[in-house]
């Protein structure tokens, strides 16, 4: 009789333990999902589109990190000089500029954080003085 109660008690404890562990794993998955943002990056040369990519990043990520995840880039003294083989041209005064959700960026790519559903457009354009 005592053996039956012991076996029953062990089975119940195992079920409770297994249930508790599975709930914890679901909470961890939800936390990880909430720690990411989805950002759309687009490259343009003037008005011509050179490509678009959707990138999943961690919250608090900077614009340049997502850009580098989407395409190969080159920099010089903290400035983006080439994206995916498209180079700026100092003689023609064409440089990489970027906007976030249609608004001119107020910070550099290494200072600006991305937010969920941002649309970031890098345009190789002529800059007049």
From TrEMBL:
Pfam families with a match to the protein in the record: DUF4430
Domain Transcobalamin-like C-terminal: 60-126
Signal peptide boundaries: 1-20
Keywords: Signal
Transmembrane segments: none
Taxonomic superkingdom: Bacteria
Protein name per UniProt: Transcobalamin-like C-terminal domain-containing protein
Organism: Ligilactobacillus acidipiscis DSM 15836
Lineage, uppermost ranks: Bacteria, Bacillati, Bacillota, Bacilli, Lactobacillales
């Amino acid at each position: 009789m005592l053996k039956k109660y012991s076996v029953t008690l062990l089975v119940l404890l195992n079920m409770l333990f297994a249930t508790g562990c599975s709930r914890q794993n679901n909470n961890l998955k939800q936390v990880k999902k909430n720690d990411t943002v989805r950002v759309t990056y687009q490259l343009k040369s003037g008005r011509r589109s050179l490509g678009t990519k959707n990138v999943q990043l961690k919250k608090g990520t900077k614009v340049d990190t997502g850009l580098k995840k989407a395409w190969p880039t080159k920099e010089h003294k903290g400035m983006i000089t080439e994206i995916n083989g498209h180079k700026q041209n100092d003689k023609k005064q064409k440089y990489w500029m970027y906007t976030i959700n249609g608004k001119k960026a107020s910070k550099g790519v290494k200072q600006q954080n991305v937010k969920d559903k941002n649309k970031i457009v890098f345009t190789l354009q002529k800059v007049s003085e």
